[in-house]
Write a structure and sequence with these properties.
This protein has a domain of about 220 residues: Rossmann fold (3-Layer(aba) Sandwich), CATH 3.40.50.970. By secondary structure, the chain is of the alpha/beta class. The strands form two sheets. It has a five-stranded parallel sheet with strand order 1-2-3-7-6, sandwiched between helices. The N and C termini lie far apart (about 50 Å). A hairpin with a 2-residue loop joins β4 and β5. It binds thiamine diphosphate.
């Protein structure tokens, strides 16, 4: 674990609280999905929480991010409302997409969250457009693209890095390298093991970070934010991390990953690492952790109650807000 960077203890605890919120939110979403209360598909971010929280802790509310199919963590880290997120997963009218988008389409422009995205690498182009918008606005805004190792093999990654580097857009490209794209290993589809090495082809910095160390991620993100705000252009940050769950939460979902690999990464759980460090520093004790967990569970209970009390969309609303079919 890296140094805590002399961050105020409150900020460190807030980071832990956000990471725990993501984890408990998804544990519940997974259980509710398997119980048939949630529709569509749920991809859990469990194990990767330090990436979203480390990066978003370095951003302002007005900075913009875009997410992936594995988007709950990015939404929560950017400040999305748990009630509206839960209602969306439950398919209710009070959800972010009025219950018609589900897990992979949560967006909240008011907090700079431009959306999860079911198209692998699809978000990279959209957020690069937001980077261009930020440059034109001239207010020092930054745009952040989260994406996986699989997405880094797709055309939009290369096209966007090229134009963002050429135009010195205020972009941060954050690759969450969890070593697998669905059932395919990164090793079998990447000519170079490190995605960060690809930055050299576009003349921008490529940084490798321990993605399970929230302070290391935060530090790298801060440097990239400074560079972007100063007009020097984009940075590619590769966070080495791992998902604890299979690709999706479906019953019987195959998980062909090597058991020893899974177990080794489970031993480097980002939440356990941060909790241990805060305890060692004397900034968290049992009572503090219990209180934090209690607050999170109360907020999640309230969110589920909010969702369950909300109506489903009416059939005649099916085509409302649909721009093309
Ligand atoms: C364009 C496109 N191709 C294929 C898929 C099916 N698909 C969904 S998730 C996924 C794997 C993505 O892997 P990665 O980008 O590494 O993200 P991770 O799931 O590891 O977070 C694939 C192939 C898709 N949704 N979109």
């Amino acid at each position: 674990m890296s140094l805590s960077l002399n961050l105020p203890p409150d900020k460190q605890r807030a980071m832990l609280s956000q990471m725990l919120t993501i984890r408990r939110f998804e544990e519940r979403a997974s259980a509710d999905y398997l119980a048939g209360k949630i529709y569509g598909v749920v991809h859990c971010y469990i194990g990767e929480e330090a990436v979203a929280v480390g990066v978003c802790s370095a951003l302002e509310r007005t900075d913009r991010i875009i997410s992936t199919h594995r988007g709950h963590g990015h939404c929560i880290a950017k400040g999305a409302d748990l009630n509206r997120m839960t209602a969306e997963l439950y398919g209710r009218q009070t959800g972010y997409c009025k219950g018609k988008g589900g897990s992979m389409h949560i967006a909240d422009f008011g907090i700079g969250m431009l959306g999860a995205n079911g198209i692998v690498a699809g978000g990279i182009s959209i957020i690069t457009g937001a980077g261009l918008a930020a440059q034109i606005e001239g207010k020092g805004g930054v745009a952040v693209s989260f994406f996986g190792d699989g997405a880094s093999n797709a055309g939009p990654f290369h096209e966007c890095l090229n134009i963002a580097a050429t135009w010195k857009l205020p972009m941060i490209y954050v690759c969450e390298n969890n070593l697998h794209a669905a059932q395919t290993t990164a090793a079998s589809t990447h000519a170079m093991p490190d995605v960060a090495g690809r930055a050299a082809g576009y003349g921008i910095p490529g940084v490798i970070v321990d993605g399970n160390d929230v302070f290391a991620v935060y530090q790298a993100a801060n440097q990239a934010v400074d560079r972007a705000r100063s007009g020097a252009g984009p940075t590619l940050i590769e966070c080495k991390t791992y998902r604890h769950r299979a690709h999706t939460e479906r019953k019987g979902q195959p998980d062909p990953r090597d058991r020893a690999e899974v177990e080794a990464w489970m031993r480097r759980d980002p939440i356990a690492l941060l909790t241990g460090q805060l305890r060692e520093q004397g900034e968290l004790d049992d009572a503090g952790l219990r209180a934090m967990e209690g607050d999170i569970m109360a907020a999640l209970d309230a969110a589920v109650a909010f969702a369950e009390a909300s109506p489903f969309p009416e059939p005649e609303q099916a085509t409302d807000d649909v721009f093309a079919a």
